[in-house]
Prior knowledge:
alpha+beta, Glutaredoxin, 4-stranded mixed beta sheet, 44% helix, globular
Amino acid sequence: MTEDTADSRVSAALERGQIILFDAECVLCSKNAQIVLTHDKARRFYLAPMQGAVGADLSRRHGLDPENPTSIAVVGKSSVHTDSDAIIAIYAALAWPWRLVALLRIVPAPVRDPVYRLIARNRYRLFGKRAECWLPTAEHRARML
């Protein structure tokens, strides 16, 4: 994919919704991506694995290291959410019962984020690491960047 094509796909995705940057080698992160693709009936989220060209570029633009991803990110036209704010932003936009995760907003970010970071630092040990990046089904492929 050329840079112009990638940029146009990113621009189009941001016109329609938001882009989730995720670690496709992480079993937990990949499961989260599958949940989003399955339960985002409004099709507002697009996904970009940090290991891919588009995801790596977007990660760098927003201060994340795609070689050592430490957070998930939700990129919008005028906003970027990371850490627990990203998880809340994602799940608050899904249908019930997933949007109940939004109740975590009552917990201050200085309390939520250290818990998020602890899990993120240990995600491979706790949940596993894929030998190859997770790939979506044909049905969801159009929402991957």
